[in-house]
């Protein structure tokens, strides 16, 4: 593993740098885009949406407050009550008209003088201070504000949960003479909020001054308190402290993306309007794009790295081959042979098998170059290399040792057998026709070689065995060449 890392260490580091750079760039782009979107939503989109929703609420939810205010200040209503409430049909007709015209579920008038509860179908009942259902009237009677909004059951509509706008009716001297107003069913109001949420893609609900959720869509429970809800509880004091009609922009975080909140106090209702935007859904497209970019970029990066690895490996293999191979003959060069020989010595010591070396020298090779030229000389060298590879065993190793010298390593081979192999090779080369067509003239070219053989001894050094082989080669050349000599 260490050898592999040493060989491809630079490539590994380059790959890691490229991958780290790509991931950092992709993540940085995602973070910048996410922060930009969050800032845009917080400073522009959500406030604008809050204003639009507030305008819709003024039209759909605050309208009952304005209607109740007109009823409480209507001179007909006040004069009818001050004059003794004589013609009940008049007020019933009036309440029926109010109910029909404003598409309300209920319209009512309760007299402080007679304690009668009037609605669009007549007199419902006489209220009593001892009855729990009538406590709202006495609360309104002592109310300092002009009106209240209240979620309660409507006795005139089979106890349906209804949002009532209870408005104080005063005589011309400012004395309390009754309460009037209209009611909208809770389901109607919930559907209105659901409609807002569908249109604006926001979570919308109302909380009272104590933090209780007074009105919400069908997906949110009423009477939960925002002080007890995880996440928004962290900003609940800031929401409830705002009693101005201007919107306040806040933010709280949960386990997912942060949630933006636009809060506005609505004095006419006495409630806080909360518009929430959970950024997880808005960030989903960005996250999908990030995942796609990461996948595509990662794929491209992987392909590039594979091509790079292949190219570097191929180039390095060529360099290694070039560094270890003689370019003319295709044999190992001297540097590569030194490494192979050292390894063979170690293997021979472990296996206790004999090993021999053969030093081969081309006879009168200088004359070939001088008379016929270096191209013919190169041809001779290549031919001898090919003849040697065909004549030797598969386990034998041959290298180009010098200009016209070759060195052969014979593994698991005795001196006697090595001498026979060398003699066979010498004879094959001597009988080979090295002729070559040059300038359309056929020239007969005969080449001979001299060889020296030596067997490696125990604990013998590389220089020592080569010196003995060289000495044997010198004897072969001194005794007429074209022969094989060995050294014991």
The CATH homologous superfamily of the domain at 334-487 is named Reverse transcriptase/Diguanylate cyclase domain
- SS content category: alpha+beta
Number of strands: 18
Which percent range fits the helix content?
40-55%
Q: What's the shape?
A: rod-shaped
What is the C-alpha radius of gyration, as a whole number of Å?
A: 53 Å
Strand line-up across the major sheet:
3-2-1-6-5-4
Poorly predicted runs of 5 or more residues: 437-441
User: How much of the sequence is in beta strands?
Assistant: 15-25%
**Largest sheet data:** 6 strands, antiparallel
Provide mean pLDDT, rounded. 82
CATH fold annotation of the domain at 334-487:
Alpha-Beta Plaits
CATH class of the domain at 334-487: Alpha Beta
> If helices are DSSP runs of H or I spanning 4 or more residues, what is the number of helices?
13
Structure summarized in a few sentences:
By secondary structure, the chain is of the alpha+beta class.
Provide an overview of this structure.
By secondary structure, this protein is an alpha+beta fold. Among the domains are: 63-187, Beta-Lactamase (2-Layer Sandwich), CATH 3.30.450; 334-487, Reverse transcriptase/Diguanylate cyclase domain (Alpha-Beta Plaits). Helix content is 50%, strand content 23%. It is built from 13 helices and 18 strands. The strands form 4 sheets. The protein has a 6-stranded antiparallel beta sheet with strand order 3-2-1-6-5-4. Strands 8-7-11-10-9 form a 5-stranded antiparallel beta sheet.
């Amino acid at each position: 593993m260490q050898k592999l890392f040493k060989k491809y260490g630079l490539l590994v580091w380059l790959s890691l740098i490229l991958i780290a750079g790509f991931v950092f760039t992709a993540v940085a782009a995602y973070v910048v885009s996410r922060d930009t979107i969050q800032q845009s939503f917080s400073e522009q989109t959500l406030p604008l949406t809050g204003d639009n929703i507030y305008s819709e609420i003024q039209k759909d939810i605050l309208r009952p407050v304005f209607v109740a205010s007109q009823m409480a200040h209507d001179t007909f209503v006040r004069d009818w009550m001050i004059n003794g409430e004589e013609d009940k049909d008049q007020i019933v007709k009036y309440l029926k008209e109010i109910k029909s015209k404003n598409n309300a579920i209920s319209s009512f008038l309760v007299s402080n003088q007679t304690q009668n509860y009037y609605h669009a179908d007549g007199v419902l009942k006489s209220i009593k201070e001892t009855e729990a259902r009538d406590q709202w009237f006495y609360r309104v009677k002592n109310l300092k504000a002009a009106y209240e909004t209240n979620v309660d059951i409507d006795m005139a509509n089979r106890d349906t949960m209804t949002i009532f706008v209870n408005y104080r009716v005063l005589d011309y001297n400012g004395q309390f003479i009754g309460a009037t107003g209209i009611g909208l069913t809770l389901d109607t109001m919930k559907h209105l909020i659901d409609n807002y949420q569908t249109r604006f893609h926001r979570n919308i609900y109302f909380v009272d001054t104590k933090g209780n959720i007074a009105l919400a869509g069908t997906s949110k429970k009423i009477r939960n308190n925002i002080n007890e809800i995880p996440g928004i509880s962290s900003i609940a004091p800031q929401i409830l402290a705002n009693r101005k009609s201007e919107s306040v922009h806040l933010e709280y975080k949960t386990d997912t993306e942060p949630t933006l909140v636009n809060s506005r106090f609505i004095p006419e209702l006495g409630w806080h309007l909360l518009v929430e935007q959970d950024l997880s859904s808005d960030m989903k497209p960005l996250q999908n794009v990030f995942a796609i970019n990461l996948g595509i970029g990662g794929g491209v990066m992987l392909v590039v790295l594979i091509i790079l690895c292949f190219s570097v490996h191929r180039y390095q293999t060529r360099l290694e081959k070039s560094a270890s191979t003689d370019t003319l003959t295709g044999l190992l060069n001297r540097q590569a042979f030194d490494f192979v020989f050292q390894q063979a010595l170690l293997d021979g010591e472990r296996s206790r098998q004999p090993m021999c070396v053969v030093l081969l020298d081309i006879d009168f090779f200088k004359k070939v170059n001088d008379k016929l030229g270096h191209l013919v000389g190169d041809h001779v060298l290549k031919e001898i290399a090919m003849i040697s590879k065909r004549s030797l065993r598969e386990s034998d190793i041959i290298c180009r040792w010098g200009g016209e010298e070759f060195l052969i390593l014979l593994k698991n081979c005795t001196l006697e057998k090595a001498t026979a192999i060398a003699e066979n090779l010498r004879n094959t080369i001597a009988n080979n026709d090295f002729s070559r067509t040059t300038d359309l003239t056929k020239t007969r070219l005969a080449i001979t070689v001299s060889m020296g053989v030596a067997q490696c001894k125990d604990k013998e050094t590389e220089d020592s065995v080569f010196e003995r082989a060289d000495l044997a080669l010198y004897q072969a050349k001194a005794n007429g060449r074209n022969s094989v000599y060995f050294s014991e």
